[in-house]
Amino acid sequence: MKLDATAFQQHEKAFHQFLTDWGVADPRGLELIRALAGAARLLEVIADHHLQENGLSLPRLRLLLWLHAEEYHGNKDGLSPSRLSQFQHISKNTVSSLLDSLEQQGLIERALNREDKRKFNIRLTRAGREIIKKTLPQHSARLAEAFTALTSEEQNTLLKLLRKLRPALAARAAEK
Fold first, then answer.
1. What angle do CA 84, 72, 125 make, to 5 degrees?
2. What per-residue confidence (pLDDT) applies to 64?
3. CATH of the domain at 83
């Protein structure tokens, strides 16, 4: 169901009223998480449409970029699937499935761990580096286009606010 701007505003106003009617004194927390999560999902849809043209998905690209960043910073041995799972905040099963598909595409390779021959590390292949080189500029441009509803100043403000919010959320998430 597509909503035009007016229908969307009416929907948001109705949601706010619903929360108020159910005794939520300050609905901003729920409204913020709903707005952030909704925007994030839509950005992922936009990103995935473009990435599918190159045989990728957003989760697969994230893994490739993480491996590339590690390589760029001098780690030529690669990373264990467990570390990739931790870094990406996804389950080991999900990482395993993503790695299998990336390996089938020839974008990564598994190499025995130097210290423990029972384990293996994941590394980029030449094809993996090439697809990043080909895809990343287009991907970045596509995402930049997605934010054209905001002025440059508004984009900077949003970025500043999210950068301020993230460490505070990380600290709260770490609390037990």
1. 70
2. 96
3. 1.10.10.10
Long-range residue pairs from 107-111, CB within 8 A, at least 24 positions apart, any chain = 107/64, 107/131, 108/63, 108/64, 108/67, 111/77, 111/78
What is the C-alpha to C-alpha distance for residues 78 and 75, in angstroms, rounded to an integer? 6
Spatial neighbors of 12 by CB under 8 A, at least 6 apart, are: 31
- The pTM of this model reads 0.77
Residue with tokens 């100043």: 153
- Judged on CB neighbours under 10 Å (0-12, 13-18, 19+), 51 is buried
- Whether 65 shows a pLDDT value over 90: the answer reads yes
Give the count of domains, the chain.
1
42, 147, 157, 158 from 152: Cα distances, Å = 20, 9, 9, 10
3-state DSSP assignment of residue 114: coil
Q: What is the pLDDT of residues 124-142, one digit of tens each?
A: 999 999 999 999 999 999 9
Q: What is the mean pLDDT of residues 9-19?
A: 79
Is 142 in contact with 50 (CB distance < 8 Å)? yes
Q: What three-state secondary structure class fits 134?
A: helix
Q: How far apart are CA 59 and CA 94, in angstroms?
A: 10
Domain range for 122 is 28-174
> Of 14-28, 51-65, 142-156, where does mean pLDDT reach its minimum?
14-28
